[in-house]
């Protein structure tokens, strides 16, 4: 039978030769290895591929070097790579040598095969391969594939200017806690891409030791996005430090903290975010964050509908509209009578998102003029405040009058200066 298949490997018909290669694979006879090696040079790519797949099944070390050579054949490369993985340990050293081949596709295939081998002998050569831009990604994935033996060499590689970004990425994928402190140090690297990779990796690791350094990294405008995502990745241990960051001097840090708290959805952040609604630089992020937290934010937002600042009331109405909780219906109906036009409009839009029969009744009972015009006494009071000694009071009165749409307010504001 074996001799018949050997003869068939030399048949003029490539289909016969391919079938013979496949049959030899199933024979399990070690004498089939040499004919299959010869078939790796067949004129037909399907025959060459079948021979490579058959040699994988054989697991014979004699096939290693011919298969390494076959990595140069684009039609057979994938099958040859898989065959080398199948052969196992005898293929590791030749694959390491192939990491220096002139052809980048051969180097990449070698890295991928070494990844699947999981052999620690490949770690240092793969670390070196991180310097090769054509192979860097494959080498990094290969180190992740090898696992724990790669961690310490990768930590050392964090100090190598050529490979530290890829090393940080690989350490994040590996998820080994030994990398936390070195990655924290990498947050201060001179290279932006390394700082971002370190932040990303720390988020993947999820270790609470990284929280404060990542909070500090929020001040770095080029790393802020990666840092806030990393803090979300760490989860609960980041909540209190993020709440503290809502009071940072930098409004962009405060905004990033609000965003992260919304993503985390922790109820501890509700009251601090309600307070942040008073911060014009952070208001939008804070109201979105409260919507992200959901049900625990409803009652505090209802309370905020009575805040003295109309901007806070408006933001609260908007957030309650997005949350769509039935507890907010009556308070929003009450807000239709708010002194501030923008609050009344926000309440109306919020109520329009519900299908509560109370809303239909409330809107039906009021004409547009009734709920879009403020009470008379409020307008008179605001006009008087235009002459207040306190410039902040005057500015607030001017702002609210300009929003009111009341004809008296328009006349006053268009007239001679009132202070």
Automatic annotation (TrEMBL):
Functional note: Catalyzes the hydroxylation of the N(6)-(4-aminobutyl)-L-lysine intermediate produced by deoxyhypusine synthase/DHPS on a critical lysine of the eukaryotic translation initiation factor 5A/eIF-5A. This is the second step of the post-translational modification of that lysine into an unusual amino acid residue named hypusine. Hypusination is unique to mature eIF-5A factor and is essential for its function.
SMART domains the record matches: ARM (SM00185), EZ_HEAT (SM00567)
Pfam families: HEAT_2, HEAT_EZ, HEAT_PBS
UniProt-recorded name of the protein: HEAT repeat domain-containing protein
Lineage, uppermost ranks: Archaea, Methanobacteriati, Methanobacteriota, Methanomada group, Methanobacteria
PROSITE patterns given in the database record: HEAT_REPEAT (PS50077)
């Amino acid at each position: 039978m074996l001799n018949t298949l050997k003869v068939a490997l030399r048949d003029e018909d490539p289909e016969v030769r391919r079938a013979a290669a496949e049959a030899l694979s199933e024979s399990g006879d070690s004498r089939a290895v040499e004919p299959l090696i010869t078939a790796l040079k067949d004129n037909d790519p399907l025959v060459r591929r079948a021979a490579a797949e058959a040699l994988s099944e054989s697991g014979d070390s004699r096939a290693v070097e011919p298969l390494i050579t076959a990595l140069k054949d684009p039609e057979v490369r994938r099958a040859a790579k898989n065959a080398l993985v199948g052969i196992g340990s005898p293929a590791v050293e030749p694959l390491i040598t192939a990491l220096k081949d002139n052809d980048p596709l051969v180097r990449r295939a070698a890295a991928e095969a070494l990844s699947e081998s999981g052999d620690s002998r490949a770690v240092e050569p793969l670390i070196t391969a991180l310097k090769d831009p054509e192979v860097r990604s494959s080498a990094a994935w290969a180190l992740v594939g090898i696992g724990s033996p790669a961690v310490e060499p990768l930590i050392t590689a964090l100090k190598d200017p050529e490979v530290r970004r890829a090393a940080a990425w690989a350490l994040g994928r590996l998820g080994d806690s030994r990398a936390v402190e070195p990655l924290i140090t990498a947050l201060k690297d001179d290279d932006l891409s390394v700082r971002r990779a370190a932040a990303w990796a720390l988020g993947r690791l999820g270790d609470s030791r990284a929280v404060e350094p990542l909070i500090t990294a929020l001040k770095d405008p080029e790393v802020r996005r990666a840092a806030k995502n990393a803090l979300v990745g760490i989860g609960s241990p980041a909540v209190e430090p993020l709440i503290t960051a809502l009071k940072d001097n930098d409004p962009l840090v405060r905004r990033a903290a609000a965003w992260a708290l919304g993503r985390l959805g922790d109820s501890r952040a509700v009251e601090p975010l309600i307070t942040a609604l008073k911060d014009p630089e952070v208001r939008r992020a804070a109201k979105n964050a409260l919507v992200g937290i959901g049900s625990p934010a409803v009652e505090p937002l209802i309370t905020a509908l009575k805040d003295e600042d109309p901007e806070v009331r408006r933001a609260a109405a908007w957030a309650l509209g997005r949350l769509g909780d039935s507890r907010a219906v009556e308070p929003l109906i009450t807000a239709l009578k708010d002194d501030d036009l923008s609050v009344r409009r926000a309440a109306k839009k919020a109520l329009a998102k519900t299908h509560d029969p109370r809303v239909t009744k409330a809107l039906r009972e009021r004409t547009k003029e009734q709920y879009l015009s403020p009470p008379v006494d409020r307008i008179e009071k605001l006009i008087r405040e235009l002459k207040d000694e306190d410039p902040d009071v005057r500015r607030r009165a001017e702002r609210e009058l300009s929003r009111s749409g009341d004809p008296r307010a328009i006349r006053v504001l268009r007239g001679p200066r009132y202070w």
